[in-house]
Specification:
Number of helices: 9
InterPro entries: NrsF
Oligomer: single chain
Protein name: DUF1109 domain-containing protein
Distance between the termini: 25 Å
Number of domains: 1
Organism: Variovorax soli
Keywords: Membrane, Transmembrane, Transmembrane helix
Pfam family, one: NrsF
Order of helices and strands: HHHHHHHHH
């Protein structure tokens, strides 16, 4: 078969891709993975008993909303990176800005605190487990998003995997916030960010191999 005939045959079978296909598949991945993350938190760790009371504390909302913003920004990023030729532009700022803000808040709180209270604000009670708990709770969303990406067409696999990691990390940290007893800004700035960085790094490494055409 000649090259021109092969091209014509392939073109004849070409079908238009549905609009918003990437966003729909990734939204489906979230719809599958997020309830599993919530179930993991509930059955493995448990919702904190004073949750209703903490709803009136501003730092609880910081702890909840900062990773939730990262998750939303990660979704925007990954659905763009899942399509060839789509520019990311300034979408990375959606991931970076919440982290920078919580770092600034953590540093300010640490500097203003009495010297004898600073160590407790950094280490808290759960620093040994926080990082891995966040990564573990993020795992269902992480796996589902990579499966969805595999069925799409990312041309920058490492970046797409990192974006999927950011989305899952933000979701996992937001879910974990419903259990976590820590509220100090320095703790969040260090250990929450480290916990969220693990899926991002894993996504970049796995995506480089798994998502290559």
């Amino acid at each position: 078969m000649k090259t021109d005939e092969l091209v014509a045959l392939l073109a004849a079978r070409a079908e238009p891709v549905q609009r918003h296909a990437a966003a729909r598949r990734l939204a489906l991945a979230l719809a599958v993975g997020l309830p599993l993350s919530v179930a993991t938190m509930v059955f493995e760790y448990g919702v904190r008993r004073d949750l209703v009371q903490t709803l009136f504390w501003p730092m609880f909302w910081v702890k909840l909303l900062f990773p939730a913003c990262v998750a939303v920004a990660g979704f925007v990023l990954v659905q763009r990176l899942a399509r060839p030729g789509v520019r990311v532009r300034a979408a990375w700022l959606g991931v970076a800005v919440p982290v920078l803000l919580v770092w600034a808040l953590g540093l300010a709180a640490w500097l203003m605190a009495p010297v004898d209270e600073r160590a407790a604000m950094v280490w808290g009670q759960t620093w040994r487990t926080c990082v891995f708990n966040i990564a573990f709770i993020a795992l269902p969303v992480f796996v589902a998003s990579l499966v969805a990406l595999k069925s799409l067409a990312p041309t920058r696999p490492a970046l797409a995997g990192a974006a999927a990691g950011a989305m899952s990390a933000g979701a996992g940290a937001a879910v974990y916030a419903l259990h976590c007893p820590e509220l100090a800004a320095p703790f969040l700035a260090i250990w929450y960010v480290m916990g969220m960085a693990l899926p991002v790094a894993a996504g970049a490494l796995i995506g480089h191999r798994m998502l290559r055409w």
